[in-house]
Structures are given as structure tokens and as C-alpha cells.
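Sequence only, no structure available. Ideas?
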Amino acid sequence: MLHIHSLQHALIQARDLSLDAGQGIHLQGPSGAGKSLLLRCLADLLPWQGEIRLHGRSVWEHTPVQWRQRVVYCSTENHWWMPRCADHFLHDPRVDMDSVGLDPALLERAPTQLSSGQRQRLALLRALDRQPAVLCADEPCANLDDHSRARVEARLDAFMQQGGMLILTHHQRPSLTLTPWRVENGRVHHA
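Reply:
I predicted one. C-alpha cells follow.
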């Protein structure tokens, strides 16, 4: 589904790595190794060079907006720019709110009125609302208690039934079935 023929950034390089539909990749490596940087490059949020293909089509055959709708980056440092949480969604998210343990009434609030954990779970739903082929999830369970983490991981597992995911976590390995990739010394490789 997603194949990195080559990805080069001033601080990181990746070659000949693939992500299949229904597969999850767990990015591992020390802090500062470039894991988040890799996710942002894959989502075309930072300048990079090389060749990546999604379903056989080159990244360069897509406009940046088209690519970012197919390969979505979800960060712990999520940004909100509209007055109400609901304004950030393309589709009605109420049907999915329970899957991550959120009350649909939160959608009427301003993002600043939510806790960091509530914003984080809502940001994940916002990313999934775009119906991506690939989700690049940067610490999707940070700031969450064990119960909320389990619900988010179950929602991510449900997403992987249809798409692919690269996930970065610093807590113990998530309960999801994931293939490890190692990031160290500016290089990405199978662990």
C-alpha cells in the first residue's frame, strides 16, 4: 500500500520500507532519533526528497492537499482553529465519540475547555474523519489513563482493519499487533 523507495531529509533517511493495508508499524528508537520527523515527512508536512508510493501512485502525482488527505499526521500537540470542536470535522463525529470514551456534548465546547486527554482523543477522531489510507500517529495515547488508552488502542485496531498505520509511542509497547521499525543514527530500518 505505502512504499518508501527513498526518503531523505537533512536528519533522516529511509529506503525500501513498505506498509501493507491492515498493517501497523511501531516506530522505536531513542528520543531525538527522528521518529516524529519521519512521520511528518511521510505526511508531507516537512520538506524532503525521494520517492514514496501509495497504492502504486507516486507522492508527486498528488497535490500536497490530496496527499495529506490520504496520509494523515495526528500529533500530541494538536491544533484547533475553529470556535467549537464540532467545526473541525467533515462528517458528524458523534457516532464515533463513544469508541474513545468521549461524550458527544464535548463537540459544542471550545477546544480550550477540554482537558489535554480529551483534545487528544478528539484529534484522533478528527484525523480518522478524513478517512485516510495511512495514519501517522505520534503518541496517540500520551496524557491518557489506562482505561482511555485501551479504548484508543481498540479504535486504532479497528482502523487497521481497513488502512495502514505508523505509530510512535514512548510508553510500554501498545497492545496492538505491530511490526517494529527502528530509527537510530538518522536511519530507518526493520527492527
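The chain has a mean pLDDT of 92.
Hope that gets you unstuck.
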